[in-house]
Amino acid sequence: QLELELLRKEEKLLETDFVLEQVCRLTERAWGRARDGERDTLLLAKTTSELQKKIKDKTRKMMALVAELSMKQALAIKLQQEVRDREQFLVTVSSRVDQGLPIPQDTEREWLKVLRNEEVQKAAAEARARVGFCRAAFASGCPCCSALLCLRPNAYVPGAERGLPLPRPYGALAPFKPSAPGSNMRHIRKPVVKPIEI
């Protein structure tokens, strides 16, 4: 009887081992599928986040372009209005000239201002060209330009006590050479010199 019970127990043990093997195999398969699913979901999440980022960038760029376009449209409308106003003004001025009437004073003032600005710009351009020419000539060593420019002294000739009077450089303690007084000096009062009483 003990042997029969032992045989039954062994059979049950074998059955449970077999069931355990089957369950282990099935769980391994399920774990593999779950891992594959996790990998797939991770890849899907990455691609969706990248796509969302691209969509946000594109919408931001689109909004910037729309804003820029609206600004350009507003500027175009303003310029068109200005052109229309100028054309209307030109028509009125030409009709006044045809009738022998004088041009409005505001228009004449503006025209004189434009002419003055053109003259000032032309004079400034000529002065810049002259300065550039003088600098280039001085850099090339032209004697006529070097005579016109007053250079700052960087050396002095000592007293001829011994030998030749050769110029010596000042070094760090060069003499101060003041520049010409500016136009704002007329607003500054000269100091009143007080007499010294001894």
Characteristic key phrases:
single chain; 198 residues; mainly alpha; 2 domains; two-stranded antiparallel sheet; 3 helices; elongated
Category from helices, strands and their pairing:
mainly alpha
Helical proportion, percent range: over 70%
How many helical elements? 3
Element pattern in H and E:
HHHEE
Largest beta sheet: strand ordering: 1-2
Largest sheet, in brief, is: 2 strands, antiparallel
Distance between the termini: 148 Å
Kindly state the number of beta strands. Answer: 2
What is the alpha-carbon Rg in Å? 49 Å
Strand content: under 5%
Number of domains: 2
Shape: elongated
The residue ranges in which pLDDT falls below 50 over 5 or more consecutive positions are none
Q: Could you report the average pLDDT, rounded to the nearest whole number?
A: 84
